[in-house]
Amino acid sequence: MKRKQIIVLGLVLVIITVGILQYNYGGVGESSRENLDGLIQSEKTNLENIPGAAVYVDGDLPDAADAAAAGDQQASGYFAEARMQRDKSRSKEKEELQNMAQGISGEVEASSILTSEEVQTQLMAVIKRSEAETTIETLIKQRGFEDALAYMSDTGNIDVVVKAASLSEKEVAQISDIVVRHADVDMENITVKNVN
What we know:
Elements: H1 2-25, H2 33-48, E1 55-57, H3 65-101, H4 116-142, E2 148-152, E3 158-163, H5 169-183, E4 190-195
Helix pairs in contact: 1-2, 3-4, 4-5
């Protein structure tokens, strides 16, 4: 219960900080790119000082309409290719673990053979990670994003890539909340990045 309170407090502090910065620097809602870059840098510094805050990595924004159109095609290709590679890797990992469970581990050295229970535990962990990734991607898309890709490592770190020109702090907080709820990880293990 205490950990959830700390997470909520951290998110509230981020929202308050963004509100104060918006009030002080962006009153009209329009600012030059230099001011925006300064705000983003100061906001990153503020977030780095909050224990357990998710890390947001800003993607490059295209300069022209042609670059935007090319970027859309590249981003769509990026998501499709990355998802295919991730799924291929997961399938291979599942197959290897299933073979080990069935005792068909021809290439595995005798010293590295795991017990049947350990293999089943690892197999369930891979399946759980795959399900969490799919759930996270679906829920992020339901928030109005065109596409999303989640990759959960076996060490508990999660990288989330969202197709968007930019992400507001509120959107990053929403994405981080989805990840925390469905992957049961700490905020400091989440990295959110946008790709346009």
